[in-house]
Design a protein that fits this description.
With 377 residues, the chain is α/β, with parallel strands linked by helices. 29% of the residues lie in helices and 24% in strands.
Length: 377
């Protein structure tokens, strides 16, 4: 979590206001762990998790590919040193002019989940490779993904058949088992669905070659999570089970699992109060909240580890809230968070495991608060 390099940086620099500090040594260690765990799968880092140029440049040097959700992210990956062949445009919802721009930049691999998207790509990126995303239930994920993306496997057959008919290269299937997926077996059913699509299209003379296993690989928050090696073993077993000796090319898209535990947010206590004399819970207000980068506390889905200088003292549950004039800016209330009774105004705290999905979720200037500052060391 908070590495000595991060602690030394905060002690030496004393940055004012809330900030994220990311340790690149941890990112590199995570990349190597994924490479060892799934040696036959190409790594496509999910740029949306944290697009800091230093992170992208490091991963590009290490040989990573990149999963991009927009033209802007495509341009970031290229600027970091990736070639177009190492980029996937993984968003299934794209403007036609953005498809055309990505194609002009050399990107040739696109995600789809409906015939209409296939038609856009056929017009704007003729001859491109496409993979179709199928729906999964996301059971076991702490941040499940909705039905917004993907189609049922039966429809995927029609989508890829249409792509083939329109001159595109029907390449494969993708899915996402849900972010912060703690069940190592979650990939099994999705791979069973992928296998059925592969076989159905093979009977039609269309040979698929790629399975995009998506992301979902977790980082450690308050609970231990399986190792990358455990996920690798489970996924390989499922591939053998559903594809036999004809295992396709596979790619993975780690985001949270790549950078989540590499980052720590330094924050400050602004106020400690109660709503009544008989109130059982204190309210602890920080100088960062949902609008400052902690959006994943929505519905209390992600519970970040919080470290204070008073952790050796007695703790009691409290409601944890952000500083803005918005009643939704409360992180933990349904399940109050235990913090030291002596915690007081001006105390600094560390919110660990915040390297992913924080800086890019932060608002630009809600209530006049500046976006979350980031330091990469």
């Amino acid at each position: 979590m908070a590495t000595q390099r991060i602690l030394d940086f905060l002690a030496d620099r004393r940055p004012d206001g809330p900030c994220l500090v990311v340790d690149l040594d941890v990112v590199e260690s995570n990349f190597n762990a994924f490479r060892r765990a799934l040696p036959d799968s190409a790594i496509y880092y999910a740029v949306k998790a944290n697009p800091a140029p230093e992170i992208l440049s490091l991963l590009a040097r290490l040989g990573s590919n990149f999963d991009c959700a927009s033209v802007a992210e495509v341009e970031m990956a290229l600027a970091a040193g990736a070639t177009p062949a190492r980029i996937s445009y993984g968003n299934t919802i794209k403007k036609e002019r953005d498809i055309a721009r990505a194609s002009q930049l050399g990107v040739s691999l696109f995600a789809v989940d409906c015939v209409e998207e296939v038609e856009k790509i056929a017009r704007s990126a003729p001859g491109a490779r496409v993979f179709c995303r199928v729906l999964t239930d996301g059971a076991g994920a702490e941040w499940p993904l909705s039905r917004k993306f993907g189609c049922v496997p039966e429809m995927a057959i029609d989508v890829l058949e249409t792509a083939h008919a329109l001159g595109l290269k029907a390449t494969g299937i993708s899915f996402h088992v849900g972010s912060q997926q703690t069940n190592t077996e979650a990939w099994d059913q999705a791979l069973a669905d992928a296998g059925r699509v592969f076989r159905a299209l093979s009977e039609k003379g269309i040979v698929l070659t790629l399975v995009n296993l998506g992301g979902g690989f977790p980082t450690r928050y308050l609970k231990d999570v399986p190792t990358a090696e455990a996920y690798g073993r489970s996924i390989f077993d499922a591939l053998r089970r559903h594809f036999g000796n004809c295992i396709p090319e596979t790619i993975i898209e780690p985001g949270r699992g790549m950078v989540g535990d590499a980052g720590v947010i330094k924050a400050e206590v602004v106020l400690v109060s109660k709503k009544s004399v008989s109130d059982e819970n204190r309210w602890v207000y920080l100088d960062i909240g949902k609008f400052g980068g902690l959006a994943e506390t929505m519905d209390e889905a992600i519970r970040y580890p919080i470290v204070t200088g008073r952790d050796h003292e007695e703790k009691q549950p409290c409601v944890l809230a952000g500083p803005t004039c918005d009643s939704a800016d409360v992180m933990y209330e349904k399940t109050p968070y235990p913090l030291p009774i002596s915690l007081t105004v001006g105390d600094e705290i560390l919110i660990e495991g915040t390297g992913a999905y924080t800086t890019t979720y932060a608002s630009v200037a809600f209530n006049g608060f500046e976006p979350l500052r980031s330091y990469v060391i």
